Amino acid sequence: MSQPRNSYAVGTGLFIVLGFAALVYLATQTTSVANTHQGASYIVDTHFANIGQLKERAPVKIAGVRVGQVQSITLAPGAEVADVKLAIDKNYDKIPLDSVATIFTSGLLGDQYVGIVYGTSKKTVAEGGTLALTKPAEQLEDMLGKFFGAGGMADNLGGTYTVTATFSNVGTLSAGAAVKMAGVPIGSVQSVVADPVKLDAKVTLAIDNRYNQIPDDSSAAVFTSGLIGSQFVAIQPGGSPDALKNGDEMVLTQSAMQLEDLIGKFLVNGSSSTDKKDAGNGKPGDKSSDTPSPTTPAGKQ
Amino acid sequence: MSTRPVPTRNALTGALAQVGGCGLFLLTLLAAIPRSFRYVRETLRQLWFVGAMSLTIIMVCGLFVGMVLMLQLYHVLSIFGGTSASGMVVALSVYRELGPVVTALLFAGRAGTSITAEIGLMRATDQIDAMEMMAVDPIAYVGTPRFLAGLIAMPLLCCVFCAMSVLGGHLVGVTWLGIDNGTFWSNMTAVVDLRTDIVNGVLLKSLAFGAVVTLIAVYQGFTTPPTSEGVAYATTRTVVASSIAILALDFVLTAFLM
Amino acid sequence: MTDPVRNPPDDSTLVRVRGLTTVLNGKTIFDKLDLDIPRGKVTAIMGPSGTGKTTLLKHITGQMTPDAGQILVDGQDVPKLSREALYKLREGIGYLFQNSALLTDFSVFENVAFPLRQHTQLPEVLIRNVVLLKLQAVGLRGAAQLMPNELSGGMARRVALARAIVFDPMLILYDEPFVGLDPVALNQVLKLIRTLNETLGITSVLVAHEIEAVKRVADHVFLIANGKVVAQGDPKTIANDGSAWTRQFFGGDEDGPVPFQYPAGDYAQALGFSGAAK
Questions:
Q1: ipTM of the predicted structure?
Q2: pTM above 0.80?
Q3: In a domain? residue A69
């Protein structure tokens, strides 16, 4: 039963071969398997204080060019720093011993990778050697803090003075977030800590020395930039002739809006007479204890 | 024999009877697998008809899906400055969802209908009865080989579809829109995982879809009234039922596999 | 290829039907039908349309199971056979479908070779010789490489006949073998049935309406109506047995025991002249 059906057999065979070729292509060329097939490489040790989101098999790059990958990430018991082994292609064996290994993020949303910036030493790192100079991963929060608050720049220019403000709820405000007045960054949040006695949040703001004429009855509010943006502290100037000084406390504060509250308000807007009751019921029960009505400035003390 | 049309009373019991009949028919098909081992050549021949003959449409559609996906993603991602991730997003969305689903829908339209129509016409022209009379089990000779062929062909077709989509994305993204070639591939290879994306996404899903589409097609062919009107109706029903089954099953599979 | 000859319970009867009762969709097709088909003869089963002649053939081959009764083919009770035994039995039965039922995917040669390929492991040379032999017998050896859609109705029927006899069966069932044939093709098929019966001794059962054709080919005729055998005998004499059934059937009267009207309610009532019109 062969002759008349041979054409089918050949065609079908071709089809199967093509299908499997496509599978092999997908599996080897477009997946992480592609990264494991490396040429000869040598291992270099590095130690990072913080690896952020770095993962094994993440690329190692010099001048943006991929030269190898992260072989392993371990934390020795008791150790404070992560031990990261880099597998670097044998072609790149002239890396100076004093080169700096840094953990970078590719773009805002991309994965992290190890970048090596060449030093000036004549000695090169060998198989099993260690790159002693490293820079840990930048935390997104730090970067955002810098970005929005220009805190680092303020530090450099003229120093800062700090004031404190107490909020019943800071939402997701974190250290490094911007402090803005009239929408312009004038400083950054230095710390956010919970007060163990009053059970609310004590926020320390570092404000650029240039802005030393802020009235001491100004109010501070936690705002959100856009719907999903990060939160920041906005200062609304008051009318007092006295200015805020280092170590002062801002009395008038407005806590962060919770998205739940906003939605609750939105939904019951039509029936204002039962506003408070409904808003209270609409909220998750565990929040009601520490979230007073967020619309009124919560004057503390 | 379970090849009689199921009497339908109303839409709900009718649909239930179809689902139940389909399930029972699956058992019949599976039970006939040992008997169809001797018809390996027939399975191979069906693999040619349902697989190799569907290759052109799958390749062309895969190419265009990849191209249009890349075009859309490029415009959206350029808002965030994330165009370098578009190759990766094309690969992920094709591997996990679009590849298996679109391949299965095309497969239902291309191969499923022809299976239903062919079996229906074989019944209308007494060819199925003739096989019975020649002591050849029509389920084992006609049904199971087509079912097995669909089962084998779908994952292969899906792989071809996905590969063509990635190439289409590369064509538009790299050669046309100017995304860096290395970025395109390295972003993709960094994120796409062999097990969750290729095995779970491409292979498992397409295997399940292939089984469902060919089961429905063969079942409709065997149960339709053997008239020209019945065959036409059954062909339509194959496409409708397959499409619903594919998308519903896709939801269930995604929920389980993710 | 057929089963080794065993000692049948009754040498002169190949198919014995006893008390066959079949109800389809609430309509009684057979009502305790008794029938004996003699071995080695050409038997015709005749009757008005819708009396279940084709159903009877399907009972004999086990494609349909009756509600009650016995069908003994070569001593085996068909409704009680297992699937394997039934398939084994069918290898000894040829069946000629009304519309030939050739497999449209395959050429004429492959169609005739199909049963051989499915049930034997014969070498290709032997298959070729057997197929060409059978095609020669129906006069279509030259058409071996044509596809079924290239054949005329008469040729397709002859190919189907060649396929039916490829295993040298003990019994051939012809379902309406004369329908739609021109006089030449009709004569060819008639001659083939006769020849196969005489040269190979194949028992033939044919279901037909064509009285003249049946008279030329059949040794024995059963006339079935209302689920029973109403007349049987030699085709030359059966027409003259004087019963109302045979008079209507062979005489061609439009009304008689077989009513012209399909059973219906009162005509006048259906038209709306209830009561008054009567």
A1: 0.76
A2: no
A3: yes
